[in-house]
Amino acid sequence: MAISQMVGASIKRREDPRLVTGTGSYVDDIQQTALVHMHVVRSSEAHARILGIETGRAKEADGVVAILTGKDLKPEFGAPLPVTVCFVPDKKYPNHYPIAIEKVHYVGEPVAIVLASSRAAAEDAGERIEVKYQSLPAVVDIEKAIEKGAPVLHEELGSNLSYDVKFAAGDIDAAFKEAEVTIKQRLIQQRLIPIAIEPRGVLADYKTFSNKLTVWSSTQIPHFVKVWLAVILGISESNVRVVAPEVGGGFGSKIRVYPEEILTALASRRLGRPVKWIEDRNENVKATHHGRDQIWDVEIAAKKDGTVLGIRPTQWLNLGGYCSQFGTFQVLGMLVAQGAYKMKAFDGRAVGVFTNTTPTDAYRGAGRPEATYLIERVMDLVARETGIDPVEVRRKNFVRAEDQPFTTLLGLTYDSGDYTITLDKALEMVDYAALRREQAEKRKQGKYIGIGLSTYIEICGLGPAAATQAATGVSLWGMSVVNLHFTGKATVIIGSSPHGQGHETTYAQVASDVLGIPVEDIDVQHGDTAIGPMGMDTYGSRSTALDGNAVHISAMKVQEKARKIAAHLLEAAEGDVVYENGKAFVKGTPSKAVTIQEIAMAAFQTNRLPKGMEGGLEATTFFDPSNFVWPFGAHICVVEVDPETGATTILRYVAVDDCGTRINPMVVDGQLHGGIAQGIGQALFEEGVYDGAGQLQTGSLVDYLIPTALDLPSFELAATITPSPVNPLGTKGIGEAGTIASTPAVMNAIVDALQPFGVRDVAMPATPQKLWQLMHHNGGTRR
After folding, report:
1. Contact at 8 Å (CB) between 359 and 289?
2. Is 394 helix (H, G, I), strand (E, B) or coil?
3. pTM
4. Average pLDDT of the segment spanning 61-77
5. Could you give the maximum distance between any two Cα atoms of the chain, in Å?
6. Complete DSSP assignment for 239-284
7. CA-derived radius of gyration, the chain
8. pLDDT for 163-202, tens place per residue?
9. Which of the chain's ends, N or C, has fewer CB atoms near its CB within 10 Å?
10. CA distance linking residue 395 with residue 406, whole number of Å
11. Please, which residues have CB within 8 angstroms of residue 73's CB and are 6 or more apart in sequence?
């Protein structure tokens, strides 16, 4: 019986039954004998010297096993926490250790750990610890932090400036001389707090006599955590195992090697007992890294016909109290700020600044949402200034299909794309012309509808050596092992570690098509550093473009060896044997075939193998493509803003995305649903706010608003398919596309709705109070 083609099939995710029935295994579900619970005592000060930590009363509390401070643990730190310098090789940054030793730099920084027989006992004892601080002036504002006389967080650096780097190409002065229209605008990317369903958790178990460490962590990067645990703790890498069980969502917030992973491991080594730490939501909002928190100032040079000649953006980044591990990837926004458009010149500048706030790091999109917001607001600003429809401004400036592969001003090369087809399809779905007529009629009735566009490109598939080595100094491959067992069942091991992307389903689909065996017979394993070679983990929508294609290539290697064994079994010339649908046969005689199950059995019997062939059917691949992959699309949002309340209602949301070959369209749509919801959250609800003393004012989900199902419309999704030429499956990326595209679509719609009131820009989040004030600032008079 033929196996149907799996790539392109919307089969249900195999992960979901255990997740929706509560039978999945998260860190807190893992039990160990003689378990000790860790509580982290965190700084209540944003900027202060530690004068002393009084632990006497806490040590007397019931159940306490030990209390450790930074001074206790300092001798055991073989290295500070890791920091990447990608894109910014000359940046300045301080050593960042897992626990404060002499000084704290933000509220929530660890200052002591309590180890006790239960979580409650550890928390109760933690409340008895008294930390004596010498308070220092705090600074939370990016611009104030680099003013003369500002409080300096890290005295050894001399200032709060980490980096100030240029990204320029073309003659920007000539572009502005040629310009008939010039525009200046400040765009705010507010601070966001990632709210994964499951907060973080770590369980460390150090075996004293064997010097072996096992760590279970809700991380996106188990392989990187393994490496840095070995480096920081001074343990041989071969003696460290890291397991990522069910993660409960990440969105980039679980991409770092966090202090708690180091602290639990150190504590376990000290005690000779397993140590567990589970983050509560209060800790989550102030100690898990934050996202965005940037100011973008842009100057635009354009012609009256809507042609954009060049832009001069400056990206001001709030780094928080330290440089986070992957925080520099937010600068990636500068590299892709040209978007889907041609222009003559680009003059960018990225400035990273320390403040007394929780460190920021990569958050779903990592620079690309900020870049897309910039360039899509630019297109609408040009449309507004010239009086040309925003659709036509985009059409005029698009990179054309015939220009692909297209090299940007800053030297990146788009692999493939036709940006007009996604825009045309989206316009057709909303009936754009009819919408504009309806908008005009509603305005006469005092109702304010807005139509917002976002035509985005996205860089995914970090990071092929040929494309990344010069800019980042690193290359990151995709990895897979495909092993066909004696019974004809298969195991697939991948180097990425999913946290909601559905890899157990989609990668089985990829292997199924090549091997010709049912997906039910393919077990996909991940997230355990003990089961396969070094993987490069999950971030930047890289998994399918790299690991997914590595699975395909490994499966092809296995298929080729199976074909050779089949030729031997069939007593035929190798060139005459065809492998199709899990069977091998001599051309023209499909009825006389050997199945993959028969071939697998033969592969483990020396007397049935061709002379000189090794037994087994297993292949390993490290896949390094020639370029990134570049998905694209067009999103259109239709909103109505109530002039009486300022409330925004999303009437329609249409998205047409092109991520190349869609392995499982159902999974693709699920990623888009979640991503769009997050982007809407930034546009309308979310904002992390600090007061002048560095105290977080949005420290709970009462104060920090996230969207609910009631706030979201039904998304209308469609697709075009433009395969990538840089990998065999033709896949691109989709995990971050919804977040990247949706925020500018919503905000462009809101600004469009408020155009009669003379509103040119709205700072996010577009709260009802803010919009009401903008609509009534001159007595509610329309212009």
Report:
1. yes
2. helix
3. 0.96
4. 97
5. 92
6. GEEEE-------TTTT-S--HHHHHHHHHHHHHTS-EEEE--HHHH
7. 28
8. 999 999 999 999 999 999 999 999 999 999 999 999 999 9
9. N
10. 16
11. 98, 99, 263, 266
